[in-house]
Amino acid sequence: MTPRRVVYAGFATRRHSGGVHVLTQHVRLLRAAGHEAWLWLPDPDDRTDWIDADVPVLAGATTPIGADDLLVLPETPTVPGRDPAPGARTVIFNQNHFYTFAAGAPGPDFPGWAAPPGVWAVTGESRDVLSAVLPGLAVSLVPNPVDGELFAPRPGDRARVSWFPRKRPREASLLRELLRHDPRLAGVDLVEMVDIPRADVADVLATTTVFVALGHSESFGLPVAEALASGCLVVGYDGGGGHELFEAPGAWRIPDQRPLLLRDRIAELIAHADGSAPLRAANRRWVLDRYPLSRTAGALDAAVTAAFARPGSAAVATHPAAWIDVLGPHFTAYA
Q1: Chunked in runs of 10, what are the mean pLDDT values of the chain (335 residues)?
Q2: Out of 70, 172, 187, 215, which could bridge 165 as a Cys pair, Cβ 3.0 to 4.6 Å?
Q3: Which residue segments constitute the domains of the chain, with CATH numbers given?
Q4: Measuring CA to CA, which residue among 73, 70, 112 is closest to residue 92?
């Protein structure tokens, strides 16, 4: 008897992708729990070196999905009326509720597939938004885990401020110059992280004093969570869905698009950095207590069990890469 499978449709981006990394975490967790789980990429040449060798991969523009299988699809591109696997048992793993309708205006029966999909969300905020906007679909919470082994603090020889500019490139350029010209930050290491491997991100955060959150339209905000695990103080924008992370004891939310307020709070935190060790340690404890791998594993197992309880038919699935062009150039520039 062929075991039922859980097949995750994903994309192998050139640079590390937090969203695809979460898919690989799911695959590992499910396989550890005894499930037959796979990552599905649209092209056999797509696998990149940041996807670990122990993650099994299916490749091709199409793949057969058995009547006993579960196909997990990303929220983008979910194209209304274009069913990627007609009749198959499916789930939309929605890692960012702001992208739900990125591929087109929804109809009354979104997404208009032969068999209604389940929906998985990564935060309580995202679950509540999706439940309200998609009342006909069952929405479950599968929270993201935070890797406290990779992301951990270590002593540094000077104060450091770091950030990712990708979601707000224009504002990030302003911030960089504001910080560079501020005499209160003379001698502080300013690090803008651009297209660097995940291990290098962990190295930077390990000795970062203040991490600046420049998220935009977030469902969770994994960089903020990883900065907290690294023992950073955090200041910046919660991006909407990431507001729960700013409940950490050493995190400060700034009103949107206020770079001068950001600069001043950063300078204040740096001025008192010598006494911040207890607060930075509290940040690490706080985030690892709330987002352990065990919580994700339990929620994922329950969500998969519920999905398998729904009926499904065999189908030949089309990888969602077939519709990536409907998103347009502006989506991929900031997604």
Answers
A1: 87 79 95 96 82 90 97 94 96 96 87 96 97 96 97 95 96 97 98 94 98 95 97 96 95 96 98 97 98 97 97 97 81 50
A2: 172
A3: 5-145+292-334 (3.40.50), 160-290 (3.40.50.2000)
A4: 73
